Automatic annotation (TrEMBL):
InterPro entries: SmpB (IPR023620), SsrA-bd_prot (IPR000037), SsrA-bd_prot_CS (IPR020081). GO terms for biological process: trans-translation; trans-translation-dependent protein tagging. Required for rescue of stalled ribosomes mediated by trans-translation. Binds to transfer-messenger RNA (tmRNA), required for stable association of tmRNA with ribosomes. tmRNA and SmpB together mimic tRNA shape, replacing the anticodon stem-loop with SmpB. tmRNA is encoded by the ssrA gene; the 2 termini fold to resemble tRNA(Ala) and it encodes a 'tag peptide', a short internal open reading frame. During trans-translation Ala-aminoacylated tmRNA acts like a tRNA, entering the A-site of stalled ribosomes, displacing the stalled mRNA. PROSITE patterns: SSRP (PS01317). Keywords: Cytoplasm, RNA-binding. Belongs to the SmpB family. CDD domains: SmpB (cd09294). It is found in: Cytoplasm. This is SsrA-binding protein.
Length: 162
């Protein structure tokens, strides 16, 4: 009679805020993550860190390394290893495309966001190229200038209506 209440929306579990600062994101992919039961329960408690995580392509499969999901607090001997390597689920044509782009060593795969979608854990994976220090400074300068322009326009609009 009673249905289990599954979250239907998109609940963001973790975001990698440093990724867009340190890397230029060239393309993004949505992929599933193969997880164990205690990992899902730990994720639903909101415990996860994707700051140091990265993905590699090995033997035609994409693997996620260094994603830290702590052990489930109510788990027993069935608990998982917190930093185990996890398989990512992508379509074959996406994997082939990624393999071609990552092969030269100039680009890497960085997780951008981990979220729940219709009760399943999804990962937004970014194909990224590292930024140099001067690129980071230019981005900071550009954002500061845009912020000042918006602030000045707001002052002018207030001045006209006042």
């Amino acid at each position: 009679m009673g249905k289990k209440n599954k979250p239907q929306g998109r609940g963001v579990l973790a975001t990698n805020r440093r990724a867009r600062h340190d890397y230029k994101i060239l393309d993004t992919y949505e992929c599933g993550v193969v997880l164990l039961g205690t990992e899902i329960k730990s994720l639903r408690e909101g415990k996860v860190s994707i700051a140091d995580a990265f993905a590699t392509v090995d033997n035609g499969e994409v693997w996620l390394h260094s994603l830290h999901i702590p052990e489930y607090s109510m788990g027993s001997w069935t608990n998982h290893s917190p930093k185990r390597t996890r398989k990512l689920l992508l379509h074959r044509n996406e994997i082939d495309s990624i393999m071609g782009k990552v092969r030269d060593g100039q680009r890497t795969l960085i997780p951008l966001k981990l979220y729940l979608s219709n009760g399943r854990v999804k990962l937004e994976l970014g194909l990224a190229q590292g930024k140099q220090d001067y690129d980071k400074r230019q981005d900071i300068k550009r954002r500061t200038e845009e912020r000042e322009i918006v602030r000045e326009l707001g002052r002018r609009v207030k001045g006209i209506h006042a």
